[in-house]
């Protein structure tokens, strides 16, 4: 067990991705799991990475739990639900771009915040708490309230709290509700990691700098606006917003691009790198991930030069 704890809270799912010959490949993924995976790849050994969710008692839930344990992601905060199972999604690719189909109505993760005491215990033991807009979207409103209250208190206590809005409108009741909860989450986040294309569509931001400014005004302590391989906006410690550009790559599969950026960025920030240097680390990780199929590239294949 590491001396420090990175806790990722959310929903992991069974992933079906296209393989050769019209076959499908089964794996496990999900936005918060993906970021935990790449944080584990990039963080030193004195960090423990743990996943907080809820699984069923079925064989697929057992396989997922074993998969996490076998890949050095702690399952000690995972609860089990006798009435529900894990969600499933399928990825179809067209010229490197993805489309998704989901089956998640009976996902046990929708109850991940039902045991507030267990959630509070996990957060209290953690140094970094990571969650996403999907984490919020799948919860009942009262459970969203509880989660944000606990994470907000953790931020006030000096812990690093990280939020990726990861906007998925179909998961929310309506656009107004979605915008309200995502904006509220900013106040709980010492670091926010939005993606510009999603944000522009939902909030009407005209450029990445405006997007970063909106998140800062909403209460986030630090902001990085990802941009699908384009220029990235990074809020610096002096209050300025830097616009950074990186070498582009042609994606094979863009699944997990933003999540892997998050893992690399956060590992660099936790190692003491400045936000702009950490963004370069995040881009380095994401550029490798999008050149391989699937959301989770084996950790030993990730090469870090910085």
TrEMBL record:
The UniProt record lists the keyword Transferase: yes
Pfam families: PfkB
Top-level taxonomic group: Bacteria
InterPro entries noted in UniProt: Carboh/pur_kinase_PfkB_CS, PfkB_Carbo_kinase, PfkB_dom, Ribokinase-like
Domain Carbohydrate kinase PfkB: 7-298
GO terms for MF: 2-dehydro-3-deoxygluconokinase activity
Keyword vocabulary terms for this entry: Kinase, Transferase
Keyword DNA damage listed: no
Gene3D superfamilies registered for this protein in UniProt: 3.40.1190.20
GO biological process: D-galacturonate catabolic process; D-glucuronate catabolic process; DNA damage response
Cellular component GO terms held in the UniProt record: cytosol
Protein family membership: Belongs to the carbohydrate kinase PfkB family.
Name of the molecule in the record: Carbohydrate kinase PfkB domain-containing protein
Gene source species: Ciceribacter selenitireducens ATCC BAA-1503
